[in-house]
Amino acid sequence: MGTAGGATQTENSTSTTIRVSAVGEVQAEPDQALVRVAIVQSADDAETVRTRLARNASQMREALREVGVGDDRIRTVAFDISEDRDEEGAPSGFRGVHAFEITLNDTSRVGRVVDTTVKNGANEVDGVAFTLSDARRDELRTRALQSAVNGARADAEIIADAENLSITGVRNASTVESSFVPAEAETTAVADAGGKTEVESGPVTVAVQVTVTYEARPG
Question: What integer is the mean pLDDT of 185-194?
Fold first, then answer.
């Protein structure tokens, strides 16, 4: 956790105010993973490409069901069949891509799921992101917000003390949309692990910025 920001003191005929910005950050281990894979096929005609994409997608989904990943956890994020061109610009066949994102609530299963997809139709692994479920993200945002508010108050107290002021209340407060940084993972196949994929993750960070204007009086 941490706070940062600036503060200003303003005064008019009726009141003195101190305006402070602060940031609160919380890091936590991810409880959700997003696995991105793709099926890529090429052929002389578009229909053959489409058929191969459909066949591999069906095979991959069936294999994922067998390891406990239902169809509701698999979604298409891209589908395209286009005509290829050679260096001279002449038609050279067709290429198709069907990309998927697989959501896992058990992050320890990422390696097995990657292996299952690659062995059953997928031929590209586009990446793995470790992230947070909605409930966990809301929980961490609340903690980050509390940290930011505490930091703002501490900064305001320091400024007030330096100017021989006492804080008497809050005039207004606002938050900036919280930031959320998933952990992008490195995927490696380990030879001595029987060719199984191992995925290393890192912490996920949630940050919230607040701006608070405090009312103050001399003394």
Answer: 49
